Input
Amino acid sequence: MVGSAQRVVNDLRELAARTSNADGAQRLAWGPIWRDARAWLKGKVAEMGLEVVTDSAGNNWVTVPGASARTVIVGSHLDSVPNGGWLDGCLGVAAALEALRERAATPAPVTLKLVDWADEEGARFGRSLLGSSAAAGSLNLDDIRDLKDREGTRLVDALAENGVGIDTMLNAQRELKTIDARAYLELHIEQGPVLESMGKSTGVVLGTFGVERHMLRFTGQAAHSGSTPIPMRRDAFLAAAETALACREIGLRHSKPGAQVVCTVGVVNVEPKIVTAIPGVCEISLDQRALDADVLAAMLRDAREASERCANDNHVAVEWKRLWRIEPRPFNPPLIRLCEEAVHEETGDAPRLPSGPLHDAAEMVPHMPVVMMFAYSSHGLSHCKEEDTPRDHLERTIRAYLRLVEKTVAHVASLT
Ligand SMILES: [Zn+2]
Output
């Protein structure tokens, strides 16, 4: 039956004690504490008589061969943000390790591989999902060649220190293609408040949100705050503020039960930024996210219309500039069903939710069937030392994940 959730929690405590300080986890990618976390993993794997193999992008792989080369991949990432939590990323690696432990004793009909992706967080050099995007082939080397961290260390040098060459890291794509991958299963903490608000231990993840991210620049006319009557103003800030409020309504209007979407204005810049001047220029950021591509496109259309209406009403002009976008990455329906079964059997319910944050799993979607499972996050907090999942919720979720691995192994073995 399912393995020891208790042992997974003990492993996580052990890793946290080894790689955290009073401020939280310090497993910053490509640094000495991250390397120590990987040395810890290597030790655990050696206890099972297995070894860690590193691909060209620095991702670590462990293989338990089965009767068939068809492969189920399990894993997540060991790296953390500075002052991070004890579960983000390493929960998925520790649970995957337990899945391998069971199969190292009784080999499966199919091959099982653990992956520890390198630099998921992008906390040091600003490029998230570095290792998994290299393996997926979606990494553009020109985007990362000149990256430096806060101390001025170049990414290329940090990579080299860890045996990764920037010009050969895309070979990881070829290496991934040699695997007959039939499923990728990632367990992660939710990092949000949804499961907690429902009082549920575990969630079935439907996919990762698509993102549309823009800067909107409103241009009116700066003028004296005392001498200009309100109806005669061209106040760029008011147009931006009305747009921000309209975007909240757009987010609420497009949200349905089980299919929430979000719109966020996170940056506001005004000019000339003087208490006695009407703002002549105002820039705001707008970040919109949805799981359904058509809904995301409709949200973007609605926001453009709202910005033009608000600009008109305030006699200012508005210009849009795209910062970044990624399409939604819906997960695989048969694996979602297996995940629902596993979560339902273990917890008596199977709430479904999308993932707002991106994960390495999103990079695997174009290449193989993927599903993720989420664990309850206390107070919805993550990327901080307060990050936690209550013990009973955590163990239940780990058991559900180990069930999912078993179900997926049986499912992949039955494929013809
Ligand atoms: Zn993570």
In short: The mean pLDDT is 96.
